[in-house]
């Protein structure tokens, strides 16, 4: 007689079925993994051909230099005073190695290259006519029927004053990009960049005076371009300083804008 409290015994066949079922599952998983490895991957669709990229920053200065070369050659033909033209073009020729160095070693924006381009083109125009005789007033009268000098109350040719003013206004962003990233204090950035430009305006006037004193005669008078104004050098420097100060204010206003994020 079987005892009432004895537990029912498990049949060994249950373990055998469990083992066989587990073994079969492992085999199925293994076959699935192998089949997945043998299945070729779906081809990745090729991206559409990209649109032509805009002119790269490293190419843009070369394009501007080419345009300037064409303008310079055109203005080199029959200048008003060949000797004065040669003197006026000495400094641009000396500046070419400096610009080449900047092009190779510094990341200057297209905006700055454009400002340099505008300034050297204006200088080429002044060299062609001599600064004191650029006929901008005739050009303005031909377009509008009025005299620009009369409208502005000018008693002399003001092209040289304009270029001195634009020296500070146009070249401040260029010098800022070159120097400001290496100066930690913001106030010192403004001071050093501004005084750099202002001091070079004075240095140029000294070079101009030395060249005029050395050559003398009509060539010296044409190169100085004082037009009878004894304070011409001081006024030219003042115009360069005024252009620099306006550029400083524009830069400061840009940095003060809440939305502006300038990392310099």
Write the layout of secondary structure elements.
Layout: H1 12-38, H2 60-76, H3 82-88, H4 90-105, H5 110-129, H6 136-144, H7 148-152, H8 159-179, H9 186-215, H10 217-224, H11 232-256
Helix pairs in contact: 2-5, 3-5, 3-10, 5-8, 8-9, 8-11, 9-10, 9-11
Structure description:
By secondary structure, the protein is mainly alpha-helical. The chain has one domain. It is built from eleven helices and no strands. The model is unreliable at 52-56 (pLDDT under 50).
Structural class given helices, strands, pairing?
mainly alpha
Coarse shape: globular
Number of helices: 11
Estimate nothing, just give the exact number of structural domains: 1
Q: Tell me the fraction of residues in β-strands, as a range.
A: under 5%
Termini separation = 100 Å
Extended strand count: 0
Name the helicity range: over 70%
Concise synopsis of the structure shown:
This protein has one domain. By secondary structure, the chain is an all-alpha fold.
Keywords for this structure?
264 residues; mainly alpha; 11 helices; 70% helix; 0% strand; globular
């Amino acid at each position: 007689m079987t005892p009432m409290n004895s537990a029912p015994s498990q049949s060994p066949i249950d373990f055998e079925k469990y083992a066989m079922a587990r073994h079969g599952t492992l085999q199925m998983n293994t076959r699935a993994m192998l089949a997945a490895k043998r299945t070729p991957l779906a081809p990745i669709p090729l991206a559409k051909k990209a649109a032509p990229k805009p002119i790269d920053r490293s190419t843009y200065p070369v394009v501007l230099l080419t345009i300037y070369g064409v303008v310079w050659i055109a203005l080199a033909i029959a200048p008003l005073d060949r000797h004065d033209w040669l003197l006026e073009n000495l400094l641009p020729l000396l500046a070419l190695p400096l610009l080449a160095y900047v092009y190779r070693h510094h990341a200057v924006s297209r905006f700055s290259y454009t400002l340099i381009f505008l300034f050297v083109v204006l200088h080429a125009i002044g060299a062609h006519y001599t600064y004191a005789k650029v006929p901008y007033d005739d050009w303005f009268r031909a377009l509008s029927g009025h005299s620009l000098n009369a409208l502005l109350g000018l008693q002399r040719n003001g092209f040289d004053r304009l270029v001195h003013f634009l020296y500070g206004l146009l070249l401040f962003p260029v010098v800022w990009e070159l120097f400001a990233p290496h100066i930690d204090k913001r106030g010192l950035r403004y001071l050093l960049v501004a005084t750099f430009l202002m001091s070079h305006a004075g240095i140029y006037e000294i070079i101009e005076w030395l060249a005029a004193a050395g050559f003398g005669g009509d060539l010296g008078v044409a190169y100085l371009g004082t037009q009878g104004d004894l304070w011409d050098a001081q006024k030219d420097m003042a115009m360069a300083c005024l252009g620099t100060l306006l550029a400083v204010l524009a830069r400061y206003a840009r940095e003060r804008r809440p939305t502006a994020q300038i990392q310099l």
